Task: structure prediction
Amino acid sequence: MFGVLAAGRKRACGRTGLNGDAPRIASLVPSVTELLCALRLAPWLVARTGFCVHPEKPLASVAKVGGTKDVKLDRLRALAPTHVIVNVDENRLDTLHALHDFVPEVIVTHPCAPADVLGLIDQLRSAFGALPGVAEAALALAGELRAELGHAPAARAAGPVLYLIWRAPWMTVARDTYIARLLAHAGWPTLPALDGGAQGATRYPVITGREPWLADVREVWLSSEPYAFAAPHLHEAQQLCPRARARLVDGQLLSWYGPRTAAGLRYARSLAGAL
Result:
């Protein structure tokens, strides 16, 4: 689901900025910040969160305005952005409402599958495609992703898999999240077999450790983010699922959408080869 929400009273906006001027873009979503840079829009970025760290060099001079959940609105307002990009899962609803008071264009993103990234690329191309190189970069990035989406799932995938994103409490992903759908596309359906809905905590279910189905799990993966799982946690995961093989996986490749989506699909398929 994608959409552009205008703030309060509409102001005259050109295709790229107010009254045809160059845009002043703020991204409150790490994945989108990386995507904007891949689309050659880094020169027009004026704000980012502290979690927007890739690619490092072009972002070094872009102002930080807090985190994804604790945006410093006064700091952002002072930077006078013409466009702010937010995400349903990563940013707070009250932040979105506050942005409407001073931002001409708020772009709301919510990719829930690898194929949704094609729509996101097209949305950004439509908004900023008049700027140098943006349309060409969007076309190339979309072409790479379409080619990757056409690959068959890994033949040796031994799913389903329990994909852990947090501990104390253990948390995983519902099947209608971006992570779960990327894994399923590569041949790894996730557990539990639940949908979390369009938004909210149910998209990331808590595991108590008392669920009967845990005894039958054969693969449990510990993501490198948002919780920084490391080797010492493998034993804990093994106790959670005694019959499973536990391993660490690259959370950025499997959860950051945009320029990493094609690589994430390749990576997920490659995990079958490590069985």
Q: What stands out?
A: Residues 1-15 have pLDDT under 50 and may be disordered.
